Amino acid sequence: MPEKVIEAKNIESGYGKLQIIHGISLELRKAELVTIIGPNGSGKSTFIKTIIGLVPAWSGEIIINEEVDVAGMRPFEIINSGIPINYVPQVSNVFPTLSVKENLMLGLLANKRRENNGAESDDWERIFELFPRLQERLDQKAALLSGGERQMLALGRALMTDPDILLLDEPTAALAPVLADEIFTKIIDMKKLGISILLVEQRATRALKISDRGYVFVTGQIAFEGTAQQILNNERLGELYLGRRVS
Ligand SMILES: Nc1ncnc2c1ncn2[C@@H]1O[C@H](COP(=O)(O)OP(=O)(O)OP(=O)(O)O)[C@@H](O)[C@H]1O
Ligand SMILES: [Mg+2]
Predict the structure, then answer these.
(1) Nearest CA residue ID for atom 5, ligand 1
(2) What average pLDDT values come out for the chain (247 residues) when binned by 10 residues?
């Protein structure tokens, strides 16, 4: 079996004294695409933020690449130690007053591996191949991008850090179905680049169709886990979480 790029063990976390995540254990293997689904407020974003250190883990372990435990590390410590993980938040995921190019440059600056391998032009080429629309709008302020373009920029900036592992929090939120499809296509392309992806999605059916495995969160716990197919085929889960969000 491919190595575990993320192994979260028994994570508990929350805000202040309010516990949101109640002992979640989850793993992501190399080049896997794994989707987390679950109702609003079930802790999906909180869990992702806990992995990247934006919300401190109260207890548990978060082992990256089977060697480093990042539980307790702050986001900048994780990035500065060169752990090739990046995160695209659910909201405010671009710098609106900066141009497309400047947004991408910020990703490049956070690319800890660039000094050692590869020229800068390769990074740009990879982005433009995947997101040609960004190349056409390099000097445009991010605030003026359409919703779909903005999500592409957020993905592009994350890609500029040359990540092995990407955490994507609802990248298709607030997008029309046709634009959401475009984002899903890009996610498949990123997986083909060998990037391991942990995806949170409201468009559960659509996301599971392109995923290897999935986890269903309910009130900060895992209510079900399995292959994407097992979740899609599960009648009870279908009624509860998939029925109304077919996309
Ligand atoms: N900064 C915060 N301070 C206090 N409570 C918060 C904070 N952020 C989220 N919460 C609470 O934590 C719970 C889980 O929220 P979270 O955003 O993780 O859910 P989610 O599964 O991502 O939901 P959605 O599908 O709506 O994005 C909610 O009850 C929410 O109100
Ligand atoms: Mg969320």
Answers:
(1) 15
(2) 94 97 98 96 97 97 96 91 90 92 88 62 86 94 93 93 94 90 94 96 94 97 96 83 53
Q: Which atom of ligand 1 is nearest to the CA of 49?
A: 18
Q: Which of 137, 162, 187 corresponds to the end of one domain? A: 162
Name residues whose C-beta falls within 8 Å of residue 105's C-beta, 6 or more positions apart in sequence. 160
Q: Could you tell me where the beta strands, DSSP code E, fall in 175-233?
A: 196-200, 213-218, 221-227
Residue 20, ligand 1, Cβ within 6 A = yes
Q: Is 76 in the pocket of ligand 1 (CB under 6 A)?
A: no
User: 188 C-alpha to center of ligand 1: Å?
Assistant: 27
**Residue 43 lies in domain:** 4-84+164-245
Residues 103 and 78 in one domain: no
Same domain, 37 and 79: yes
- The CA 57 to ligand 1 mean position distance, Å, reads 15
Q: Which residues are paired to 24 by β-bridges? A: 11
Residue 89 lies in a domain: no
In angstroms, how far is CA 50 from the centroid of its own chain? 13
pTM: 0.93
